[in-house]
Amino acid sequence: MDRSLSPQHKDLLGLRSVMRLTLAAIGLSAGISLLGSELHAQWGDHSLYQYHFGEISIPPASADEPMAENLSIERAITYLEDGAKAWANNRGCVSCHTTGWYGIVRPQLAESLGQPDESWRAFLEARLQDRLAADPGELQQDVNPAEVVHLAASLASWDAYVDRRLSPETEQAFQLMFSLQRDDGAWHSPDTWPPFESDAYQLATVAAMSLGLAPGWLEQATSPELQRQVAGLREYLREVPPPHDYARVALLWADRYLPGVVSADQKQDIVRVILDRQRPDGGWSIRSFARPEEWGRGNRAERLRAEADFGDPASDGHQTGLAVVVLSSAGVPPTHPAVQRGVEWLRRNQRESGRWWTKSLNTETWHFITYTGTLYPVMALAVTSSLTGTSSEER
Question: Class of the 7-383 domain?
Answer without folding.
Answer: mainly alpha
